[in-house]
């Protein structure tokens, strides 16, 4: 579960930064300077990496047993500049709590005297 959380967080930051670059630098450059090079590169990169973000969000969500509405909201956050970081913060906070709960439940299931691995 921790690996899924790390993968999701990395993708959220990458997609969030690309979206900010695209919207705050690339689009104004395209509109005012008529230079679409950054929009072409950042737009394509954001689109492909956004698909990976969705996959990592679904993977994490299924592992920590989030309801589908939460996974959808987290996935949609990758389409609004700066909201990706807010969604990542709250998703990470909740996922860490759920992971700790799962680990505590797993630890309670060990026979007496059995060390945790």
Automatic annotation (TrEMBL):
The chain crosses the membrane at residues 12-29, 41-61, 68-87. The keyword Nucleotide-binding does not apply. GO terms for cellular component: plasma membrane. Residues 6-92 form the DUF3817 domain. The keyword Repressor does not apply. It holds the Pfam family DUF3817. It is a multi-pass membrane protein. Keywords: Cell membrane, Membrane, Transmembrane, Transmembrane helix. It is found in: Cell membrane. PANTHER family: MEMBRANE PROTEIN (PTHR40077:SF2), MEMBRANE PROTEIN-RELATED (PTHR40077). NCBIfam families: integ_memb_HG. This is Integral membrane protein. It comes from Microlunatus soli.
């Amino acid at each position: 579960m921790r690996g899924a959380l790390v993968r999701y967080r990395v993708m959220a930051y990458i997609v969030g930064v690309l979206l900010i670059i695209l919207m705050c630098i690339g689009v104004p450059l395209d509109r005012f300077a008529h230079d679409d090079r950054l929009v072409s590169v950042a737009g394509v990169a954001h689109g492909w990496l956004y698909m990976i973000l969705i996959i990592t969000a679904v993977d994490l969500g299924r592992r920590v047993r989030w309801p589908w509405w939460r996974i959808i909201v987290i996935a949609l956050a990758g389409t609004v500049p700066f909201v990706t970081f807010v969604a990542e913060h709250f998703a990470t906070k909740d996922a860490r709590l759920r992971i700790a709960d799962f680990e505590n439940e797993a630890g309670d299931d060990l026979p007496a005297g059995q060390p945790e691995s």
